[in-house]
């Protein structure tokens, strides 16, 4: 694509949330990168509790960091200028250009800042277009959320501003995909419809020829074709966008490789605390052969676990209340007394401490922690955003920090920025388990404390596995999408003369 017009692009929209926009965006980025195209991902506004810290110390959605890796470029705040981090049903922390700027209700957010925000996100997109051959944008939810169209800066709002063509992704596994494609298009204004270039079917199981009559009828009704049918693919394992949508019963991440003969399976239980954030921290554990990771919400589910993880959360005090209400706090205390392993990460680490002083996040004031680690936490107005490196258990470790709580460690054995007491560990560092040597050393400690005959695989590379996943996404696009047509869209924009569908047509 070298030599084409400056800064082409495409917006990947969806008929619904979870239609597969993040996967398709990452796949297109990886496919283009393999063609030698200098490409960047972009999502104007993201709502997610899973975030990442860039090298310059900016907080962005983990999905955009993953897409940047797919594009083989370094993630920056330009790729996700607005990040909303829910703190409950009615409010979110607004992170603008990588830095928190305050809490805001949904009504307040949509009530008066959108024109200013549209200018900011458009400027970020233009900066990317000035640097990259192509920018692949991801929408949010559905572009047909007509109640929010006036304040939209992430779907048709940004497509209109950039004059980018739009491909709408639909999840056929949910059913009703053709009606969703038609209805999404018909609900849009003529100006917005002029940018809807066509559709992409996602998560199809079966014979593609069975879809052809429907795709032909869709073309006759809308004047728009289908750019491909992506098959359902098990075990993609890419970063989830929103921890609030975890299905406790379905969120089981299991290694597909069994442990060597004669070794035990190691079971990890993750407490699915409210406002759970960066639960992707445990993906590296699930990548190990013979390690089974599951999310739990009942005390009895900890009984057979060899390791319990209390993960990050956007509401540490709320998580403490939840742990106590469900009997999980008592179960964790019993584990600690019995020398059975527990790991607290970020908000989970704070909850394991002795005392919390919070006038910032929950405004609850003084709150007793679980008392499993000699740590006192004070919440600061300024958020810590960092990319620390260090050593632990004799191994090099890299991670990232995203927290308002400042921990004062009063004792125990040093462990990253936190501490260890017996079989209980705590740290603010997200992503530390992605460091292969450290993860293996940690699992050896866990196995010994749990009395398991388990030895981590010496050649498991989390970064290599992630690259394999991203290549698989690129393969899905290359093998099952009309890449020539997608390239024309990126270079030349939406075809001219696309018909307008009045609501209720035909």
Automatic annotation (TrEMBL):
Domain CobQ/CobB/MinD/ParA nucleotide binding: 11-241
Signal peptide positions (record): none
Keyword Secreted: no
Alphabetized InterPro entries for the sequence: Class_I_gatase-like (IPR029062), CobQ/CobB/MinD/ParA_Nub-bd_dom (IPR002586), CobQ_GATase1 (IPR033949), CobQ_N (IPR047045), CobQ_synth (IPR004459), GATase_3 (IPR011698), P-loop_NTPase (IPR027417)
GO molecular function: ABC-type vitamin B12 transporter activity; catalytic activity
Enzyme active site: 346, 430
Pathway: Cofactor biosynthesis; adenosylcobalamin biosynthesis
Residue stretches making up the CobB/CobQ-like glutamine amidotransferase domain: 267-436
Record keywords, A-Z: Cobalamin biosynthesis, Glutamine amidotransferase
GO biological process, one term: cobalamin biosynthetic process
Family stated for the protein in its record: Belongs to the CobB/CobQ family. CobQ subfamily.
Entry-linked PANTHER family: COBYRIC ACID SYNTHASE, DETHIOBIOTIN SYNTHETASE
Function summary: Catalyzes amidations at positions B, D, E, and G on adenosylcobyrinic A,C-diamide. NH(2) groups are provided by glutamine, and one molecule of ATP is hydrogenolyzed for each amidation.
Protein name: Cobyric acid synthase
